[in-house]
Amino acid sequence: MMSSDEADDVLPREEEMLKTKKDKYKVIALLGKGGYGAVYSVLRQSDSEKFAIKCEKATAAKKVLLMDCNVMKGATQIKSRHFCAVLDRANVKDRFNFIVMKLIGKNLWDLRQDRPDGRFSLGTALKTAAQCLVSIEHLHSVRLDIRISTKSPSIFQFGYLHRDIKPGNFAAGRKESNEHHTIFMLDFGLCREFVKRAEGKDMRAPRSSAPFRGTTRYAPLAAMLQQDQSRKDDIESWLYMVVEWTSGGLPWRKLKAHDRDKVLAYKKDVREKADILEDFLYNCPKKEFTRILKYVDTLGYYAVPDYGFIYYCVKHAAVANKIKDNDPIDWDPERPYFGPLETPGDGKVIDLEVEGGQSVKEFSKRNPKEKDQSDETRKGKKKAGASPNREKTEVKEVKK
Ligand SMILES: Nc1ncnc2c1ncn2[C@@H]1O[C@H](COP(=O)(O)OP(=O)(O)OP(=O)(O)O)[C@@H](O)[C@H]1O
Ligand SMILES: [Mg+2]
Asked: Given the CA of residue 188, which atom of ligand 1 is nearest to it?
């Protein structure tokens, strides 16, 4: 059997030249390594512009690069500023497939590691939280665009669940392109369309059980209970991430993927035990974050989250703590913040229908019986292309 290092031999080497039909790209440096392959910075030979490539080994058991590519292309069509454009793709026979995309800066895991106290200032956490929330709303927004050409009708459809919301899957833009105050969403390998493709307007009914997808630390209760995920679950993971940024660490930070049951118990305790909730929300705006947690817990599978309400809670926390819109963010302390200040809408463009004939609106009523959860990370030293202690996406079921 090949060791993982041997298996990595198929991945690009520094200085290697990669060809596509459109151009040639010289590999500069490794930016990140994940479960399915690796990401590198490259130099486009035709104009010396820098880009990123994401590679997936030809032998990868589960191919996810196509999903990455489809989601990013869809995001370009809805004109969201929070996604990287994909410009090119190709494969190197028997070694790897790759896509060429916009190059951005450090991910939010690494940016937090750069902080001397291991957490973001409240202003940075809230500004970043608001941008990530908007990007999630964009990913969830259902857009249908049916084009009838003379040959065949083509349907463009957008509306995905991310299912792996975590700090390593968001990054700031590059300073060189003056985009370092904008947050980009990354890594769509675990995405799932929640609308039935054939009709384009019905929501898929939940499966009776679904294999675990995501990262234990940030996984929503539904994922941990092997239930099918829905829009509320991305928001639940978002909240764990935002709490981690603000507090510097979640109560279950020391538990690893194989301790999934213990992490699940912790996440339930956050809901049921006042002292665990207190610990969870250490250093956080308690009133507003508790409100968000309780709200997300009321949502059912079919609910359209009220992104505007969640945004309102974030904004309320900022105002209550005298944080101004132009206060600098931690990774650019000298300049006033100039990142986007978008306000979320209602998260949908068309009215979805649910299998069985009920409309989404009927399902959107809050159901106080349903629940949710969160997760965290710790500081450590950095190595090129590998973030220490960053929680890895779990591709397969963890063996007990
Ligand atoms: N377009 C890009 N520009 C700059 N850096 C990027 C880009 N895309 C990804 N990265 C970096 O590479 C890391 C891994 O990327 P991504 O999450 O897409 O891959 P992955 O293989 O699915 O990783 P994991 O399994 O760790 O989630 C990111 O955390 C980020 O730091
Ligand atoms: Mg990732």
From this structure: 18
Dump strand ranges (E) for 102-223: 143-148, 153-158, 160-161, 170-172, 183-185, 192-193, 202-203
Q: Measured in angstroms, how far is the CA atom of residue 35 from the centroid of ligand 2?
A: 8
User: 101 CB less than 6 Å from ligand 1?
Assistant: yes
Q: Write the DSSP string, 265-302.
A: HHHHHHHH-HHHHHHHTTTS-HHHHHHHHHHHHT--TT
- pLDDT tens-digit series, residues 224-254: 999 999 999 999 999 999 999 999 999 999 9
Residue with CA closest to ligand 1 atom 9: 39
Does this model's pTM top 0.85? My answer is: yes
Question: Which ligand 1 atom sits nearest the alpha carbon of residue 390?
Answer: 26
- 61 C-beta neighbours (distance < 10 Å), count: 8
Task: Check if the beta carbon of residue 85 is closer than 8 Å to that of residue 76.
Answer: yes
Q: Which CATH number fits domain 108-363: 3.40.50.300, 1.10.510.10, 3.40.50.150, 3.10.310.40?
A: 1.10.510.10
Is the predicted pLDDT of residue 373 greater than 60, yes or no? no
Pocket test for ligand 1, best of 39, 108, 218, 387 (most atoms within 8 A of CB): 39
d(CA 34, CA 27): 18
**Binding site feature residues for ATP:** 63
Residue 187 near ligand 1, beta carbon < 6 Å? yes
